[in-house]
Inverse folding.
């Protein structure tokens, strides 16, 4: 349905997207990449907000730039957090429904329905200026689904959503995907994407580095030891407890914490709460220098 | 249906109480200034006083209001990034820009007409009995479209500095150029609006400070029909260019590109 053929886009001397060829069909496809990788550029090209410098973008065989017939089958949830703040959520969604060509009655009914679907029906009559980030995100989602498009593009849709909201969105996307709609979801958080789909497009510095099944990428990552950094006031004591775990390969003791390597990150993360609660290990926080896309790109680039 | 909604919703937005309140305040100010002018020139003819106040105040408010409302047509949407919602809907871009421009012109006409009414009320006991006021309404309507067409095109060309350029044109250009000798006055919209409003003959070199501000020093003598033709051509040309421009070029906040 969505085709990009050798698409490049330059912003003056800076390249936003570099010779990307791919197609996006029914189901959920994740567009993964760090900030500045070219995700938003790609979405803007598909939604016809910008034109490619070279190459072709087509949706159902049509050029999307300023093309109303394409927008009848395309829903777009932008990353921006900007609204007509003086309006209520209902007014905002209703107004866009009218721009979709619906009559007053149809727009009112459809607005009510999509607001219910995104869990905003009871709060949509307050002004958007008073909305939380999660509520704003839901309203953006609602306007993207208004006209029941064949393809929906969601630019970082999980930003600002609480865990319940995330789960609801993922369930909603699954239903839409099962209906045969093409859904493209951009994200820079691998963990989020894994829960939604296995089909990915991996962008790095404007280039499409990988596409296909996420499991292949995961297997690549799992060949490498996974690093975890733990902040603690008692690094030696924590290191002593952790080194006893069978899947911990090495531990580096630092002044305010420890950094360890493991080949079984899932098992390690499962065991961590027990260590803290049952054995009273003093942990202030933990993070993984590897649990980000930069690491994946390093793996992909360096082999 | 969609087209009517675009026009109505834009007009409703332009005439929000928060925006209109400022112009009500301006109209009240014009009323008071006109009263003061009458007080300091007790021997002046009322028709001439109205003409002076109208040129000096109302036809200054007109380009000012137009500059402010025109930036809300597209430029403000780009700055606020809400343009993405408009550009990804199934409506032609040329319709968006033309209908929103028309809504902006109507809003400008309404607030400026109210300003003219307040000046007429200050000068005459029955403001509607003043024939110059009715002619001014026609000129204000044409001016709303003409300034709107010009300023919308400017905002499409230069989003960020558009307001500054439009305000410069509204005040510096439109105040100085009509007073210049020779055919320079022909480069001012105000010259043609004065012709449409059938103002008293120009060339009043003894206008003094107020006369200068009211553009009474120029020597151009434009026929009313010429004023109509030039304004109609200008509006049609600039709106056509704006519609083409907006349909052809990208309008997306550049800082979002990533």
């Amino acid at each position: 349905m969505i085709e990009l053929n050798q698409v490049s886009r330059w912003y003056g001397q800076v390249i936003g997207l570099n010779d990307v060829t791919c197609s996006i069909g029914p189901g959920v496809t994740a567009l993964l990449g760090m900030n500045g990788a070219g995700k938003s550029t790609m979405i803007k090209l598909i939604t016809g907000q910008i034109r490619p410098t070279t190459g072709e973008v087509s949706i159902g065989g049509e050029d999307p730039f300023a093309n109303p017939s394409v927008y009848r089958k395309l829903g777009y949830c932008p990353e921006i957090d900007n609204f007509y703040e003086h309006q209520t959520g209902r007014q905002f969604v209703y107004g866009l429904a009218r721009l979709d060509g619906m009559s007053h009655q149809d727009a009112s009914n459809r607005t009510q329905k999509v607001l219910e679907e995104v869990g905003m029906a009871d709060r949509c009559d307050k002004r958007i200026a008073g909305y939380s980030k999660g509520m704003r995100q839901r309203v953006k989602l609602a306007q993207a689904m208004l006209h029941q498009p064949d393809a929906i593009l969601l630019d970082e849709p999980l930003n600002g959503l609480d865990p319940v909201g995330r789960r609801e969105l993922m369930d909603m996307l699954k239903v839409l995907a099962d209906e045969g709609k093409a859904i493209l979801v951009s994200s820079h958080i691998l963990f989020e994407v894994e829960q939604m789909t296995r089909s990915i497009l991996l962008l790095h510095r404007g280039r499409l580095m990988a596409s296909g099944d996420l499991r292949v990428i995961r297997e690549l990552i799992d060949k490498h030891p996974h690093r975890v950094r733990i902040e603690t006031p008692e690094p030696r004591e924590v290191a002593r407890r952790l080194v006893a775990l069978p899947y911990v390969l090495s531990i580096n003791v630092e002044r305010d914490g420890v950094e360890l390597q493991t080949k079984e990150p899932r098992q390690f993360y499962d065991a961590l709460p027990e260590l803290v609660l049952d054995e009273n290990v003093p942990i202030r926080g933990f993070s993984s220098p590897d649990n980000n896309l930069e690491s994946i790109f390093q793996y992909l680039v360096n082999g | 249906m969609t087209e009517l909604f675009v026009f109505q919703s834009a007009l409703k937005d332009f005439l929000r109480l928060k925006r209109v309140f400022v112009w009500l305040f301006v109209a009240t100010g014009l009323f008071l200034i006109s009263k003061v002018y009458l007080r300091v020139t007790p021997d002046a003819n009322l028709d001439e006083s109205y003409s002076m106040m109208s040129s000096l105040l109302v036809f200054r408010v007109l380009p000012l209001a137009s500059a402010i409302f025109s930036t809300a047509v597209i430029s403000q949407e780009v700055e606020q990034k809400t343009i993405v919602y408009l550009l990804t809907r199934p409506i032609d871009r040329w319709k968006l820009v033309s209908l929103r421009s028309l809504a902006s012109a109507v809003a400008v006409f309404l607030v400026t007409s109210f300003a003219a009414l307040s000046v007429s009320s200050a000068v005459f006991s029955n403001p509607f009995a003043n024939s110059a006021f009715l002619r001014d309404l026609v000129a204000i309507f044409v001016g709303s479209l003409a300034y709107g067409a010009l300023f919308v095109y400017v905002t499409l060309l230069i989003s960020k500095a558009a307001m500054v350029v439009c305000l410069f044109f509204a005040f510096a250009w439109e105040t100085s150029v009509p007073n210049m000798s020779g055919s320079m006055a022909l480069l001012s919209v105000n010259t043609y609006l004065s012709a449409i409003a059938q103002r008293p003959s120009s060339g009043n070199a003894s206008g003094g400070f107020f006369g200068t501000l009211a553009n009474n020093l120029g020597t151009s003598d434009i026929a009313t029909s010429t004023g109509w033709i030039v304004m109609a051509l200008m509006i049609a040309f600039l709106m056509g260019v704006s519609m083409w421009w907006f349909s052809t070029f990208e309008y997306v906040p550049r800082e979002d590109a990533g």
